[in-house]
Specification:
Layout: E1 2-4, E2 12-17, E3 39-43, H1 49-54, H2 61-74, E4 76-81, H3 90-96, E5 101-102, H4 109-115, E6 121-126, H5 134-139, E7 147-151, H6 156-162, H7 171-188, E8 192-197, H8 206-212, E9 218-219, H9 221-230
Parallel strand pairs: 2-3, 2-4, 4-5, 6-7, 6-8, 8-9
Antiparallel strand pairs: 1-3
Length: 236
């Protein structure tokens, strides 16, 4: 399945998508209106959030590679994915594909750690804490950083939509759940200096998190893809 914003020959960012049915509001990686430059999507059929997040199904590696190759053939100058848990496959994707692969917003933990004080931690808000294993962190080289991780598994609306696949979204409720979780993260870890949002469905709520946590820097998949595009656009 190919969902495309721009079908011209202009270079674009290719985004490899999980197979989902939930709404993609503006700010979500799956809504092309989120970006002010060309993006093109390719859905990996059968790659459900359950298979990627809960099962960490490595049988998905090859379908993701094939989707990436298809986007490269169409002209993608770089690739991203629609799930932060693709960090687990980062090395395989990077090795197999011939353009830069921004597999997960968690790649930005490196930058976040570099800009905070040495006695501070990077906070991570993830869709499901117990699914974000040391293996995921090690795959992108962040396993030894001082991290404070909190999950959204107890957030009813967020989990029912983005993990269980409910086809409707109460965005106001989800925003409040994200705000509550970010406040809990800050309460448990007053020494965090920046926050990285693992899940690609979280960026619509980044401002609420920023405001709730005392204006901490917030990194998410949209900030990453904007940065990725900025490294190419002057050469187009």
């Amino acid at each position: 399945m190919d969902l495309t914003k721009n079908k011209s020959n202009t270079p674009f960012i290719g985004i490899i998508m999980l197979d989902t049915i939930f709404p993609r509001i503006k700010g979500d990686i799956g809504n092309p209106a989120t970006f002010n430059f060309p993006v093109r999507y390719r859905v990996v059929n059968g790659a459900s959030p359950e298979r990627m997040v809960i099962q960490a199904d490595k049988n998905l590696i090859q379908p993701f590679i094939e989707a990436g190759r298809s986007l490269i053939k169409d002209g993608a100058c770089a690739l991203a994915t629609s799930c932060g848990f693709l960090a687990l496959f980062h090395r395989e994707l990077n090795q197999a594909l011939d353009v830069p692969v921004f597999s997960s917003s968690l790649l930005q933990v490196h930058m976040a750690q570099a800009i905070i004080k040495k006695d501070q931690k990077v906070g991570i808000i993830t869709a499901r804490k117990k699914s974000l294993t040391r293996e995921h962190l090690a795959a992108i080289g962040i396993e030894n950083y001082p991290l404070a991780i909190i999950g959204m598994e107890k957030a009813e609306e967020f989990s029912s939509v983005f993990i269980e696949g409910k086809p409707t979204l109460d965005s106001k409720k989800c925003r409040q759940e994200m705000r509550t979780t970010s406040l809990k993260l800050k309460e448990l870890n007053p020494d965090i200096g920046a926050i990285v949002l693992e899940c690609t469905n979280m960026p619509p709520y980044a401002k609420a998190i920023h405001d709730a946590t005392g204006k901490l820097p917030i990194f998410d998949v949209v900030t990453m893809i904007n940065y990725a595009y900025s490294t190419f656009k002057s050469f187009f």
